[in-house]
Amino acid sequence: MRTTIRLDDRLLGEAKREASRSGMTLTAMFEEALRAHLARVAMAARPREHVRLPTFRGDGLAPGVDLDDSAALLDYMEETS
Q1: Which spans in the chain are helix H?
Q2: For position 48, what pLDDT does the model report?
Q3: Is the pTM higher than 0.90?
Q4: How do the pLDDT tens digits run along the chain, 81 residues long?
Q5: How many CB atoms are located within 10 Å of the residue 33 CB?
Q6: With the CA atoms of 14, 15, 18 and 24 taken in that order, what torsion angle do they form, in degrees rounded to the nearest 10?
Q7: Angle between the 9-22 and 26-45 helix axes, to the nearest 10 degrees?
Q8: Non-local CB neighbours of 22 within 8 Å, separated by 6+ positions
Q9: I need a labelling partner for 7 at 20 to 30 A (CA). Which of 43, 48, 53, 75 fits?
Q10: Distances in Å between the alpha carbon of 28 and those of 7, 8, 22, 48?
Q11: Cα 71-74-79 angle, rounded to 5 deg
């Protein structure tokens, strides 16, 4: 199908350079970009599945354990196992 669209001159220039660089036609590049955009929109519109995370009873973290320090956490786990 043939259609006419209006584009900013700089955007069109960038699109032409990218199409040439990648060995695509301008039409193929626009189609690919539009398909990718529509796929992202469709994914964002899908309802998200709820995830239940397990929780455990206890006194919380052991003294000195920092969950943001993975190396120290691994050391602690090796010491206590």
Answers
A1: 9-22, 26-45, 70-80
A2: 86
A3: no
A4: 899 999 999 999 999 999 999 999 999 999 999 999 999 999 999 888 899 988 888 888 888 788 899 998 888 888 887
A5: 12
A6: -160
A7: 100
A8: 29
A9: 43
A10: 16, 19, 11, 32
A11: 125
